[in-house]
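Extended Data, record PhzF family phenazine biosynthesis protein
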Amino acid sequence: MSLPFYIVDVFTDKKYAGNQLAVFLDAGNLSSEEMQIIAREINFAESTFVTNLDFKNNSADLRIFTPEHEMQFAGHPIIGTSWVLMNKIFDNSPDEIKLNVPIGPIAIHKKEDLIWLKAAQPRFWDVFSKEDFTSFSNLKVSDFENQYLIQEVSTGSAFVIVPLNSKRALENLVLDKDKTDEWLKRNCKTSHRALYFYCIEDSEIISRMLCIEHNQLVEDAATGSASTCLQAFLLKYHSPEIETINHQGDYIGRPSQIYFKGKLTDNEFDIKIGGKTQFIAKGEWEAC
């Protein structure tokens, strides 16, 4: 069984930066186990599998896998897959499409060279103490931003949002893998457990996403789903309207730019993230 696939770099304006993504087409006959094995083989942060295409309505059914598990929602895979469908698959390069993922339909639109998605309404979960983080990291209490909470937020995938007060603290961040894993398993509400550290300095957002996969501490180059949670967090606690760029991946040599455009009105969140995508390669994958 042969599958056409594409490789793209997402949330970047140049090749070999941003977050890598493999997009597999014609994947409707693959089992979940086969998708997981392929995602583990290619070993990007995520891979996507297009299981159905509706050319009449410019929509597609999509499943998303990390090397370890399936995701209910993830931003860079949705943005990157949308770019492939809009530019390589659907007729006439449509400016609007719909992707059906496990949490539901996601509306996508393209404006110039940016592809945007609108996230689901966020859920705000437990709040944590700064002292918790000093037990499994090199952070001191003085490294945290005093004005904001540390809180787990979900828009389909959950992240613990951790505000720091400087680039220095963010850049020098060190986590103890085993203690971090233990804390995440004890405190997070879902099987997807991750930390999203950020700071705002000189009106610029800089972020880092870290999690445990395959018993390793992993850092992501650009995390769209975490960015939707961070945007929700900022709309709730910082400002009811936001339009800016979130910079991620700088500390692992994969600089990324995730565009934010959001508004909070009468407790209704309008959360949009956007990004540029770079085409890298295409080919045929022998699935069996």
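Summary. The two ends are 6 Å apart (CA to CA).
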